[in-house]
Amino acid sequence: MGKEEVKELKYRGRFGQTFIYLGKLFRLFILQSDWKVLPMSAIIAAMVSMAIGKGLFVSMEGTFQAAFALACVCIWNGFFNSIQSICRERAIIKREHRSGLHVTSYILAHLIYQMFLCALQAAITIAVCSQMGVAYPKAGVLGGDFMTEYFITLFLITYAADVLALMISAIVHTPMAAMTVMPFMLIVQLVFAGFFTLPDMLNDVSDLMVSRWGVQGLCVLADYNNLPATVVWNKLVESGKNIEAGGVTVKDIMAIAEKEGYRDEILEKLGESNRRDDFAATEENLMACWGHLILFVIVFSVVTIVFLEFIDRDKR
Fold first, then answer.
1. CA atoms of 44 and 204, how far apart (whole Å)
2. For 73-100, what is each residue's pLDDT tens digit?
């Protein structure tokens, strides 16, 4: 920030300072190529779509895997957006804080700017997945348009991860330290996303993770409990030709069942054992996901402000 802007901070209130910093961030977006996070988001979304897109909204297993992968994409985008945002200009912040900078204004500007980035990334992810052949449902859980609820969910996952990274950037003191912490935090989010089977004593830890509520939100929107479970059927069809009894193979029996119209009924029965109450397509479940993600944003923001308020005491 130039000398004129620093001088101007002394005479601006919190609201005015917010717009000064917001203007600076958007200039950096253009002049320092911070916009590069957007094509990167498109590339990541395309890669994930190629891997899991065919199963999303089609089967229980495919949707669960795809929800986990999409949550990972959102968290990666959020982390990469802001992990160095504060620590890379820590010395400048300290100097300007002594010259009249309001920390709340500085953080609010970052929150608005990061909200802009996350909204674009969520929209890009949806558009790329659509171009890669993902078929989206039409009706949402809340009775409105599915795409609106889907966008809000992807945005909140990305934004919550983004503000978590912003908090880390405020706690650590160097960009190198931030980039060292980021992979560890990413692994923690992945392990406790609810995708892997963990010891009972660790299950409650997942409630503190952005990833856990992200996966749940996506499965709720996909109406997970009413999707067919196809893995067992497909495996039996694939390997059933090698299992024979009385001259008839399992594959032959399944072919007869499919011809007689029993396939859908069998898949429904197989899916009943995989149903989860927290994945039911209800307004209560979706709002719980959104509520937790919004709460994370608030808590991470407050912690970020608290740490920066004491930046003058930092002697390192």
1. 30
2. 999 999 989 888 888 888 787 787 777 7
